Here is the input.
Amino acid sequence: MDKGHPIGVALKLVADHEDTEPRAPSVITKWLPNSPSQWLSFNLSKTLVLTEHAAAGDLWLPDGRREELAETIVPTGNLLRLRSQPASEGRPDSLHDRQARLLGDLGQETLRRLRVAVVGLGGVGSILVEELARLGVGELVLIDDETVEKTNLPRLVASELGDIGRLKTQLAARNARRANPDIRLTEIAQRVERPESLEELVRCDWIFLAADGDAARHWVNAAVQQYLVPATQVGVKVPLTPQGEVGQIHTATRLVLPGAGCLWCNRLIDPTRLAIDMHPAEEREAAQYIPGVPAPSVITLNTLAAAEAVNHFVLSVVGLHDEEGDFASVIHRPRTRQRDLQNPRQDPTCRRCTSSGQLGLGRRGSTPF
Here is the structure.
């Protein structure tokens, strides 16, 4: 993409006040990456001044109070976090010295201040947690309602026979603390659509979606669009014919950004399966016409997908992507050793990811978490 072309993205305005919503929503506007500064008007603030490295302004809250703008977040290819004063140099971190030589001390400090959610703590999710903790991410929100089964052990990082029957959140938390004793953890042994899960999800800086169900995709997609939280959907598919022949294996790493084409636009949520998935477990099983057969799953394929996702995340939050407008998904096909990019589609009438729909409405949207 031509860097001189205007890119439409969401701006999220954050007030620094204990009584305000942790991530106050904004309206959608245009961000011109090559423009040195500009004045913009919002429904919650009179004016906002943006430069390449800083943003300043005020927010007028619904009760009439005025709050100084603490941060402006631009969730684009490189996640920009702008404050009234440019960030100072980060403090040296001897533990992460080798990676800080790439990311910089300020980049390492950025990771330490982030709150990241991982939805689904199975084969892919356990690898995501391990990598994020070892990178030095400051806080993880771990969401999964399942327990460990024997057949999970070959794919769950550092799992043991004694873990059978334990919550996957407990196993993930144990591994995260082993990797980073200073990490802060929020464990939620619930499905993602539960209120306690959603309340934590929308307070995050990034979401990794590693759960298979359509309900998880729907609710994470809603969090991205209504609350302007970027996400990465990560998955592996190993198709089998009725005769047991292996089809074209592929791993998918999909960037889901506010206002940039959502999971509904890209037909990654099936309405019928979603309706079934929203019912209790017993009813979900009864609604299946064909008894469920576990899909093939191999740790090496999960690692390929997870590494692609975390690499993109790290380069984004420290501003190292070459193309800020590159929102393409990455598809790996290991059998043919292909790596393809797929640009997201957007339905101009989508009621979830367009400014005429739920985009940026936060608690005022149709899905008030």
Q: What stands out?
A: The CA atoms of residues 153 and 159 lie 6 Å apart. The first strand starts at residue 7 and ends at 10. Residues 299-317 form the longest helix (19 residues).
